[in-house]
């Protein structure tokens, strides 16, 4: 049973994240095409990504935790993903200016923002998970480590493939692949 659960988890979560990532990718394309501020669009896209991911996860979890309140799981995941995109995009937008004017401030902000970004989804999901499993707090750390690894893989794959002047369709395809 555990092997079956793990296989289902990997398939559903991978598919959910890949499909969900289309929302922030589309938000980025819209911000570039129409010269709109990226931050609010990416936060909305992040919430959508979180909702899709949370739905995929809840689909699998309901098989082993039938009392799981899917709406709370999905809603928490969506809110946390929006927060993670807000933090990540804000750091990306402010870091060039801060690195020139105040590198120590940038280090402090990144040092505070990165753990919140990485733990946000696990924490939001823990709020529901704690009602169903013992020692649910481990989910927060496990999720943060998984996001750290996932983001490292994402940037390792996407960064060398992305080039200035590429079509938006190719940029999105690379992002979804990564």
Short description:
The chain is mainly α and 178 residues long.
Description:
The chain has 178 residues and is mostly helical. It has one domain (2-177). The chain is built from 7 helices and no strands. Helix 2 runs antiparallel to helix 7 and helix 4 runs antiparallel to helix 5. The radius of gyration is 17 Å and the shape is globular. The two termini are 30 Å apart. The mean pLDDT is 92.
Number of strands: 0
Query: Helix content range of the residues, please?
Result: over 70%
Multimerization state: single chain
In percent, how much strand structure appears in the residues? under 5%
Q: Which word captures the global form? A: globular
Total count of helical runs of at least 4 residues = 7
The N- and C-terminal alpha carbons lie at a distance of: 30 Å
- Outline the biggest β-sheet: none
The assigned structural class equals mainly alpha
Helix and strand element order:
HHHHHHH
- Return Rg in Å: 17 Å
Topology, please?
Layout (H helix, E strand, L loop, with lengths): L1 H19 L1 H12 L4 H27 L5 H32 L1 H27 L8 H24 L6 H10 L1
Helix pairs in contact: 1-3, 2-3, 2-7, 3-4, 4-5, 5-6
Task: Name some characteristics of this structure.
178 residues; mainly alpha; 85% helix; globular
